[in-house]
Please model this.
Amino acid sequence: MGRHTCPTCPVACGVKLKEAGRETAKIEYETVAMTGSNVLVVDRPHVIELDEVLNALGLDTISAGNVAAFATELVERGILDYPLKWGDVEGYKRFYHDIAYRKGVGDIFAEGVAKAADHFNAHEYAVHIKGLEIPAYDPRGVVGMALAYATADRGGDHLRAWTVVTEISMRPSLEDLVKLVIHLQNRNAALWTLVACDNIVGGFADPEAGTKLYVEMLNTLGYGYDYGRFIRLGERIYNLTRLINNLDGIYRDKDVLPPRFHEKREDTGWRIAPEDFKKMLDLYYRYRSWDERGAPTERLLKDLGILS
Amino acid sequence: MKITVKLYGFLRDLAGREILELSCEHDECVLYRIFEKIVQIYPELKNYINVVDKEIYVRGVNIIINGRHIMFYDINEIVKEDLLIDILPPVSGGS
Model:
């Protein structure tokens, strides 16, 4: 039926559709996965219904889907007494309303998976990193995302470094994958200073393609950036946010995966072994020139011009 | 050594089956040689997996071996156990 867009954005990634005779919006991949298959709601009309409920309530679909799955698992394990079961569309609508209006147990789950896990003493079932619920990439299949999630400055986030397309198009090497995560984090930090759209660069297997175009555009305004200097700008930003996190007590002990990702998936047997994750994180800190605690070294900060 | 290759998504249509079974003996049981054999027996996979100079290159797929990503393995070491190799196609999405 047409496209819609955030104000002034020329990309217009939103799509208006007609479903069952009424106008609705395109459901995003994350929504389909987290509020759909993640809670065993597997038909499109019901996923659209739940998406519309969450939009109306102003709740993020990634976090809401995570919280809903967590709650359903607690009910299944006899830890939570609430009328909810897997695939229960009406139950999820009621649950999301209870969260939005902080009614009953909704008041607990409104605080997110991490705080709810504190309340129910159920951390082994909680899927989050640094309090942010994980989006729709199971890192047991796309392992670069394990490192990306664990080292994202704001928690379990897939946008700081989205390794998926590049990871499946390169030589599978631990060293190269860790460097990719770092490069994407630095690149995106720089790109977002331009309010650049992820959809433009994200689809390229080559992480430099697209970004070089932005640097050319920036230089038409008189800035003399080359690609290396532009990425360096992003590196400065990423290390500054890490310093802020360090001040808030975030060090290596928080750069961890939820217990679920170290367990074998029931269907495939895939997992991230703790010793494999340690290898990835050790390399990440080394390549970033962070110390063993996960803090940027003084030498690095002087080199970046953050310290004089 | 028994090797089971499990294909996902469009790769099943490409190979005409979900499961591929093969075996290796002694010096053959080195990962890069195993993948050479897989691609030799099933040339439909050649566009997605290549072995060049004892290095494995992928194009558009992910490879999990006995539940762990291939990059955590030394592809030059002789494997000492049966293998389940999962070959995954790409996923889409993003925001």
